[in-house]
């Protein structure tokens, strides 16, 4: 099968495997007291151009949920898009980690939240004990429909949130793809725009099993470390998580892999532009091909997901950092034929 | 430093690294739909000689807590030893995962629970709504003090538990060490003795970041998979967890590594037998050396932990699968001098 | 002020106070082992014409949340209307009691869920671990907008739910008002239509501080009693809760009070029919008066709530069992003048 | 039966019933916006001689658990006596309300915690993420074995706790009995000795179904009110809870009832002094009568509890505010005969 299902189907970058091998040398103190883990804050601080606290966890779900739990009380609610991963695809993990906080949903094209919609949704909440209190905003970069937020858009949302004493979380499972898609710095796309905590995705873009949670204000970390341990997310052989996070930035694969995936995806979008159903920006291409064409492509050996709701005739192609160029060629050819 | 602090300080077995590399070949379906994950039940079923369901998670804490959460309701309690890892070293993870179940503690030499003590402790509970209800027994193999349970001892405890409708969990963070220390089969040490669910430790004994949760009755799995996902413990690139679990059994390192660690540890115990404070059985050696001798060894570059409570003059030496023979020689020599 | 804010502002029926006084006679066993508590199942069983298990709790929020927690696992979700009390007005209590289950919202006029909308909403859920699983349907009788469900409507919803292995909860905070508004029996409006568990409201309709949770299948009670105790909802002097529940049915005030409130409310609806914004059915009257008329009525000393969202120009008048006839006369006169 | 089982079997003081009746007069705003609820802080502030925030809840279990949840994070632990009500008799309520915090147990005669034992127990905890962190101390006044803490004893414990950044909770289910048993003021027995939050028991000593949670530093209230609502513990008809709390202090029954119960209990203790197994102080009398004498008393129609563990031959007699003098006479006579 030629895989366009998800960037989760990708293998691991050689740079990551090499780093794991290089770290596999004798004893090292456990639970993050190793020399690799101890470099994390500095390396990520340099990347973002500000002091940060960085923590490795084993999955994007854990990254998101722990970030939310640190800043949202059980009687709080997280404003987020109705198609967000934390709402749709994590089996209630945010509710579990926060001790039962809610997600309050906002609609919007491209799985993006518009400032006006956020403002309107916030009017639903009263500052009394009968209702949950908005305490966080969570946005996804790039979104579940492949769209990206610009620094200005993020700042507009963050300003609204901060004015209400809400913290801002960015689910950056595909942060690198969103970053290289714009002429901006990591700083501009995060803390300078008002992001308080970032789930910085590594796995989809070449990593194996470590994601980074980045706090832009070290003082906000508070109880994160207790919660991480308590959630079984503190790796005992911490070096094997840390080196993935280090190699991701230091080898440059965050950029190289994301650029390649975005570039190849752009070819797919260009192969059948009239079917493209979401403004193309990163490594995901949405097309409203209709059930017949979808069936035809499937029959030709292309693997990809129909997009809900069922019967929409829409599908999604995702290009991974390691999708063979040949597979992209084949898909483009097939698309141009239909 | 010569490390005897914990088997968590060890590196990863070459067999595990090789397996990770071998699996790093092109695309594979995510979240456990890969061909490695799909072999897990069969391979572990053969090892244990009975049909099992096996799930990979990223840490021993997650393994223990998810196993408990699946079988213990929030208003239940888990009977366990007062020195158990789940009580002392997991920052309340069992309480978090179960939704607030309790741990009810039993004392006992060697961090072992004796059948009579379990029976006595159970008399504290009444079948009314005012108190939590005993729903699980959790024992550790090998224990936090290096002791092991024999099949007969496990069966005695499990019979008591099952008679009360309690399920039996075994925290097998060092299961392989306990297994090779006895002339018994994996089956005899687990399900044949009444164990319902096992946290089968891989990481300490050569793995990188995957542990196995083994359910001996497939029907008991119930909601485990939802809870694993919800806890951020379902790896998206599942193959890199699965191959660790497969290689651990199929390469034979579970046995080779454990035998080596146990053997070297026995040399340490033999080097200063009069100080050995716990019956030696596996890869942990406890000695009551007194603070002065402890300080002397530390000064000579040996790394190990004083054992609580503070001021007890007791310390622990742990041998890992990869502890250099030279380090053991040096420690034995130092011990024989004091 | 003339109060039309909520039936929560009402006093307690004399029948309830008398019952409390009558029970205040010497010692009685605590925690529900008293002779009043022991009659609950029989009295409610007769009312509903089927064996039931009935439990007293101190609030409607507790009734709803405990009912949901008993039947919905933490990784489940409760389908409910987006204006439901459990979603809007309980500060996340369902999430707290269930251990972090979700509420998944359905829209619909009159705060009612239509069968087609429920069916459509259920298509969003897949039977895989990535998403929460629908396990309950919760409907409100009468709804937050004063509408009522007929037995046929309930049955249609319950059939859909049961076909998906979901249980059906009815939030009957105003169940009596909904019942007397129709020519149906308690049985027809609940278990015969497929309701599995009912929060049977007593407080709003004349009670003091006890609500009933009614399970129509005694076998479903399972862990309810542990959860109630654990939530601090098992009254130690249980008789003072039980007698409220008994007097509510046995004195007939459930019917008398509800009929009076409904009747007086119908006069209000009739006083300004062109402004009535929701089909009138019980003791709540919604009117789209516009901000100016609302301000005028407020200035005349009528107390009532503007209905969200802010600026809608809509307001709600609620008649309690003890709203003075004189207050209703005054409101009707004021309404007929505008 | 002549009841000496528990002060929970008592009826409600006439003063409380009268207050409920007096408040039952027309409409009042719901959820604590009534004129009775609004007086609570002032009345309790005067009683304690310091500004306080007071909240009504429906049970002692709710009072304790909500107090703990407000000040103890999920990764924290509450140091308490191994026989404390929160450990033994609340079905895990503290774990539920806190989101899975632990209770860490301290032994001690009379169900009291000695300062030296608290200090020793605290040495078990390390300030690292592997273990839960001590965040609260909870002591019971009077204890489960009828003992009382003096202001000096409380201060000694509170000083130890505060030095570790722990907060101090007092479970005062029988606070009035402990207070009248000493020549001290409410202030001396609480905040002046270092108590941060008090569960002030009303129900056992004449109330119906309302207990008070008293915060001595208004700034500590933080999220209490959200948690109370979310737990279904905010009464909608709040006046009927508030008047119980007001009448309890303002009518003087807190003192009158407690003094009577203590005085009658002292007669029981004096009737068979050689069997008294716990230093007598309040309204509970513990006697080691042996199973034969216990059976004899039971046969004579006296109702009381054997005290665990089973077979100890110990029993407990509790005198309530309304225990008939005649019943006490009869018990004293029976005791003097054996």
Task: Describe the protein in words.
The structure is a homotetramer of 338-residue chains. Chain A has 338 residues and is of the alpha/beta class. Chain A contains 13 helices and 12 strands. In chain A, strand 5, helix 7 and strand 6 form a beta-alpha-beta unit. The two termini of chain A are 20 Å apart.
- Helix proportion range of chain A: 25-40%
Largest interface: A-B, 54 and 54 residues
Number of helices of chain A: 13
Main pleated-sheet profile of chain A: 7 strands, mixed
Topology pattern of chain A, helix = H, strand = E: EHHEHEHHEHEHEHEEHHHEHEEEH
Shape of chain A: globular
How many strand segments of chain A?
12
Q: What separation lies between the terminal Cα atoms of chain A?
A: 20 Å
Quaternary organisation: homotetramer
Structural class of chain A: alpha/beta
Low-confidence stretches of chain A: none
If strands are numbered along the chain, what order do they take across the biggest sheet of chain A?
2-8-7-6-5-3-4
Q: Please give the radius of gyration of chain A in angstroms.
A: 20 Å
Beta-strand fraction estimate of chain A: 15-25%
* Mean of residue pLDDT values of chain A: 96
């Amino acid at each position: 099968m030629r895989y366009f299902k998800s960037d989760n189907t990708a293998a691991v970058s050689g740079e990551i495997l090499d780093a794991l091998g290089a770290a596999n040398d004798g004893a090292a103190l456990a639970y993050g007291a190793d020399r690799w883990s101890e470099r994390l804050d500095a390396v990520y601080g340099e990347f973002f151009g500000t002091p940060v606290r960085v923590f490795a966890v084993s999955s994007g779900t854990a990254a998101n949920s722990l970030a939310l739990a640190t800043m949202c009380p059980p009687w709080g609610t997280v404003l987020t898009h109705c198609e967000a991963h934390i709402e749709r695809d994590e089996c209630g993990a945010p509710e579990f980690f926060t001790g039962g906080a809610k997600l309050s949903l906002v609609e919007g094209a491209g799985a993006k939240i518009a400032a006006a919609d956020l403002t309107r949704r916030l009017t639903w909440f009263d500052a009394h004990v009968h209702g949950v209190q908005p305490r966080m905003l969570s946005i996804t970069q790039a979104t579940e429909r492949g769209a990206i937020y610009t620094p200005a858009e993020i700042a507009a949302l963050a300003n609204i949130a901060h004015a209400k004493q809400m913290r801002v979380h960015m689910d950056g499972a595909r942060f690198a793809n969103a970053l290289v898609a714009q002429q901006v710095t990591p700083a501009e796309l995060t803390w300078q725009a008002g992001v308080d905590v970032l789930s910085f995705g590594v796995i989809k873009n070449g990593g194996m099993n470590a994601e980074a949670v980045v706090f832009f204000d070290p003082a906000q970390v508070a109880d994160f470390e207790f919660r991480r341990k308590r959630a079984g997310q503190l790796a005992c052989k911490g070096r094997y998580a840390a080196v993935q996070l280090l190699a991701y930035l230091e080898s440059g694969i965050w950029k190289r892999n994301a650029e390649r995936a975005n570039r190849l995806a752009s070819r797919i979008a260009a192969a059948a532009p009239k079917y493209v159903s979401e403004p193309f920006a990163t490594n995901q291409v949405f097309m409203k091909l209709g059930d017949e064409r979808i069936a035809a492509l499937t029959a030709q050996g292309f693997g990809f997901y129909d997009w809900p709701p069922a019967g929409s005739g829409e599908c999604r192609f995702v290009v991974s950092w390691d999708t063979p160029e040949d597979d992209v060629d084949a898909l483009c050819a097939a698309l141009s034929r239909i």
